[in-house]
Amino acid sequence: MEKSRLEKMKISETLLSLNILKKQNLMLGDSLLHLDNLLYLHKSISLLDYNEIKSVLVEKLPHILSIRFFTLFLYDKNRKSLKLNCHNHPDLKDDLVIQLDESGIMRDALVNGRYILETDFFRSKYFAGKKNPLYQNAFFVCIPLMIENEIIGVLNLNDNAKGFFTVGDLDFVLNVTEFLSLSISNALLFEKVETLSVTDGLTGLNNHQQMLHLLNAEFVRSHRYGSPLSLAMMDVDHFKKVNDTYGHQKGDEILMQVAAVLKTACRVNDIAARYGGEEFVLVLPETKLQGAFQIAERVRQEFSVCRFQHNGKEFAVTLSAGVAEFDRQGMDRPTQLIKVADQALYKAKETGRNKTVLGALDGDSTT
User: Fold this and answer.
1) Taking the complete model, does pTM exceed 0.90, yes or no?
2) DSSP H helical segments within 306-363, as ranges?
3) CB distance 197 to 166 below 8 Å
4) Cβ distance 81 to 65 under 8 Å?
5) Measured between alpha carbons, how far is 14 from 293 in angstroms, rounded to an integer?
């Protein structure tokens, strides 16, 4: 009897051991699969171009995380808003922007710096009373993307083949999001450095060096194909007096407003730049002199109606402009085109300001 009982215990222990071993093998298999997926993701998105990273995420992230849908929002701390930056939802607009307070779950995840898992979102405090027919499951996972204490954005996950999501599923997902945060942060930093190298920090326009580079390319193209090319130089009138009277901060505001008007006036191929100080340039491909004159006049007139405030009082500022067209017979360098436009600008200044003057290679400028 005792022998039979002992044999049963041995059999029971053997079965238990086999079950434990089987479970360990399954866990090891999942771990190896997760490791393989993580290494693949690392290899795929260890890129400096953020657009390439987004393409990889759309294609591969649902498979790697075993989910159906995801949204990745980037956080703008100045505007306290979240901009949809990467997703695989068929019914979301790519330019979607949400104020932080408009999404309780994303706000709480970012403010508290930790994930939120709602196993039944429709019964949670975050549910606004309208179900999305796209979702087949009730769970919602919201994970902040952070580097140390700096908030980058948030990753939301919905739906999977199992129909549910547990805390046990989070380990691998959190490892992936930690890596995602680092990769995205590096890519955005690189993108920012690249942008700063060619743009003016105050106005966001092309800087002087980048403008010369782009002008040279347009000059070569115009010379080769015989297409027209014009350039407009603009200068804020009495800018030193403005700075002395209202302060440099107000002067910066005025320069940013000039840039805003220039951006509005620019067509697809036009190039707006801050030439230096209070001087601006518009490079106008496929544009003859009269066309350049009309564009410069529109900028001048639109800026002249802008109003600025100082100590409760309103004031206006004006622009002067000089325009020039590429002359194939008399010009062989882009700097000559700049010089003619600059001479026309000088004439606008000395003949009363707040006007646009047409430049000519022989120096005979006209208004």
Assistant:
1) no
2) 334-350
3) no
4) no
5) 92
| Tens digits of residue pLDDT in 81-122 | 999 999 999 888 888 999 999 999 999 999 999 999 999 999
- pLDDT at position 34 is 53
At position 312, the amino acid (one-letter code) is G
From 3.40.50.920, 1.10.12.10, 3.40.50.2000, 3.30.450.40, which CATH number describes the 30-196 domain?
Answer: 3.30.450.40
Q: Do the beta carbons of residue 297 and residue 356 sit within 8 Å?
A: yes
CATH class of the domain at 208-358 = alpha beta
Residue 239 scores a pLDDT above 80: yes
Give yes or no for residue 237 having a pLDDT over 70: yes
Query: What residue ranges do the domains of the chain occupy?
Result: 30-196, 208-358
pLDDT at 132 over 60: yes
| Short-list 325, 335, 334, CA closest to 361 | 325
Residue 136 tokens read as: 């087949």
Query: Nearest to residue 203, comparing CAs of 231, 240, 234, 230?
Result: 234
Q: Are strands 356-358 and 319-325 parallel, antiparallel or unpaired?
A: parallel
Q: Is the confidence at residue 40, as pLDDT, over 80? A: no
Q: Taken in order 271, 203, 256, 320, is the CA torsion positive or negative? A: negative
